[in-house]
Amino acid sequence: MIDLLPHRPPFRFVDSVEVCEPGQRVVARWRVSGDEAWLAGHFPGRPVVPGVLQVEALAQAGAIAVLADPRYRDRLPLLGGVEDVRFPRLVEPGRELTLTVDIEKMGGRGGWGRATASVDGAITCRARLFFVLAPEG
């Protein structure tokens, strides 16, 4: 399922997919090893995963659910917007995030999804994501 993503390391933030209901829902995982280069600068002496990367990981997970739907397989899902973003807890190195995205509505031009990232059941990020479906190529 991860191969559906157009992203490649070092900018792929999904390591595995546990559940995928094409066009409807995905539950994926991203393990932050602590060896990521960006942790050295965010922040020296107290590394934490940037919120913007948590949102990107959620968008990538959501893209898997979108691309798993045969209607959208030849499209490129882009992050077109974000609403209602909150970061209630920090994510430290060595933790694994569970990325859950429930697609609310999808059409030929795009759609919306509700997303949460969590560590050990505690929410670290929640957001509403807007996907734009661009032609691939």
Account of the protein in words:
With 137 residues, this protein is mainly beta. It has a single domain, classed as Thiol Ester Dehydrase, Chain A. The protein is built from one helix and six strands. It has a six-stranded antiparallel beta sheet, covered by helices on one side. The longest helix is centred in the middle third of the chain and has 18 residues. The two termini are 20 Å apart.
**How many angstroms does the end-to-end distance come to?**
20 Å
Secondary structure: helix percent: 10-25%
Question: How is the CATH topology named?
Answer: Thiol Ester Dehydrase, Chain A
The topology string of helices and strands comes to: EEHEEEE
Strand order in space, largest sheet:
1-2-4-5-6-3
CATH architecture: Roll
Task: Describe the protein's topology.
Elements: E1 16-21, E2 25-31, H1 51-68, E3 75-86, E4 96-106, E5 110-119, E6 122-135
Antiparallel strand pairs: 1-2, 2-4, 3-6, 4-5, 5-6
